[in-house]
Amino acid sequence: MTNPMLKHTPASEPWRMLMFLLLAQLLVAFVGRSVAPLGILIGSDLELSKSQIGMLPAALFLGQTIAAVPAGMLTDAYGSRRLLGAAAICLGIAFAAATQLGHFALLLLLVAIGGAGYGSMHPITNKGIMYWFTLEKRGTAMGIKQTGVTAGAALAGLILLPFGAEYGWRPVLLGATILLMLGGILSYLLYRDPPEQTVMQKTSAGATFKSMFPLFKNKALMLVSLSAFGLSGSQMALNTYLVLFSHEKLGISLFLSGLLLVISEVSGSAGRIIWGVASDVLFRGNRVPVLLIIAILAALSSLGVAFASQAAFWEMVPLIILFGFSLSGFNGIWMNLASEIVPREQSGLSSGFSLSLGSLGVIAVPPLFGFMVDRTGSFAIGWLFIAAIMLFVIAMLSLLAVREKRNRKPIKKPGF
């Protein structure tokens, strides 16, 4: 399945373009996802409750929810290159301004504006993957690209949290935003859209908006998006509260608690590649069984953390590796599935649509997790809540698996 218009393109060119997409994705995550590890410092500075700390990533993904579909439409119409720098600068400026504020409501507003840039990067980079790579290599390429999200979040925990504890979260985050904007400009200058996508842009701009409405009737896409609702929300709850749980409940030092978050994100980075390769090689492009395995492992991991009331740092490490490998490793498979359900020229819009619905989980789950902890004084109820969400995800994916099997099976006419 080779793209005809890419037959004269050097074989290494898709992989070279992937590196620029990865760079943009990594830097956007480094800044955008910093609200989770820095939440404990921001909360201390502004005297926030745990529920309010959970509102920080919720605000980020509220911006993503609002921007994802328009970003997908713009990407389908104009390509990825023009929007790479724009998304990075949007996030960078908003978060740079947020470092100068001390009012919680205004901080949330700027985080949400930054979330528009953060969320736009997903359909922008997904579109590039869909056109630069064939189906047989797309899972691996998407997995590599999506490691930018977990790698960026891991670097935020590894670099921004300890430096923020030492020098304050404001100057440290401000420096990160400058790096982000420089990286976004670099990606814009070096990345180019594939020839086939450039041609399709001429015919897709006029019908892009109208093509959004049938997506609501696409039952497979809705099941994928509902599954992503639970997985995304649970992933962000893990990222937001793991440091707080480890430091306050288990008595682990702030540095080692941050290191647990880094371990989770690094495991998620490995998971995004390994799950992508597995879906390409072992499951021949069938993404649904892989997501089912991920949800089951995440449910078991959440139950393990719920009952780990006296665990030491080294006892938590294997459990957090499994938790991160599953719950932080699902995104590449999700993005592939959401993009492949529709015709390729609508892949940006489809991934943006699914991203928008999936992001509602990130808006709802972390504050609910924090509310439960605030009311009960126990983190265990929050982790059990995540396990319950995974049961919902497993149910949605099972329905999708049955639907896909039915669609692949030829319908026999009744005999007489």
Helix content: over 70%
Count of domain modules: 1
CATH topology: Growth Hormone, Chain: A
Report the structural category: mainly alpha
Shape by Cα distribution: globular
Number of helices, where a helix is a run of at least 4 consecutive DSSP H or I residues: 15
Largest sheet: none
N-end to C-end Cα span: 41 Å
Strands, count: 0
Low-confidence stretches: 1-6, 199-206, 409-416
CA radius of gyration is 21 Å
Mean pLDDT reading = 83
User: What's the CATH first level?
Assistant: Mainly Alpha
Give me the CATH superfamily. Answer: MFS general substrate transporter like domains
Query: What oligomeric assembly is this protein in?
Result: single chain
Secondary structure elements and pairings:
Layout: H1 13-32, H2 39-46, H3 50-78, H4 81-98, H5 104-132, H6 135-167, H7 169-190, H8 195-204, H9 219-249, H10 254-281, H11 288-306, H12 313-327, H13 331-340, H14 347-376, H15 380-408
Helix pairs in contact: 1-4, 1-5, 1-6, 1-7, 2-3, 3-5, 3-14, 4-5, 4-7, 5-6, 5-14, 6-7, 6-10, 6-13, 9-10, 9-13, 9-14, 9-15, 10-12, 11-12, 11-15, 13-14, 14-15
